[in-house]
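Narrative of accomplishments. A recurring question from our advisory board has been how the design workflow behaves on a single, concrete structure rather than in aggregate. To address it, we present the structure tokens for one chain from the evaluation set, followed by the sequence designed for it. No filtering or post-editing was applied between the two.
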């Protein structure tokens, strides 16, 4: 636990940082968000905004300005005659500080 002025911040482990961020979320809306210096990630359902901020800053070496999260509940679907449920999904919209960027296409296979 670190002391930052009047508030205490929990420092998360490296393993937790890599388990919190699952994958980049690539959609039309995420691409439009990228024009506003924003990146979208699929994250662990139990991740907090403080954990997400630490993970993004430490893994990618950027400064995070703001994080918004949203949880999409899984739909109930019929699969081969049986009822099933898709998994819940949590997305994090990470706004980066001015002049910062993350290149998500660097790791993709062409």
């Amino acid at each position: 636990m670190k002391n930052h002025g009047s508030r205490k911040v929990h420092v998360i482990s490296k393993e937790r940082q890599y388990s919190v961020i699952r994958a980049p979320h690539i959609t039309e809306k995420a691409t439009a968000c990228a024009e506003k210096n924003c990146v979208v990630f699929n994250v662990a359902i139990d991740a907090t905004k403080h954990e997400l901020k630490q993970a993004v800053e430490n893994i990618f070496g950027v400064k995070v300005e703001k994080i918004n999260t949203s949880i999409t509940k899984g739909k109930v679907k019929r699969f081969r005659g049986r009822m099933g449920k898709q998994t819940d999904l949590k997305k994090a919209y990470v706004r980066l500080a001015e002049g910062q960027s993350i290149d998500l296409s660097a790791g993709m296979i062409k």
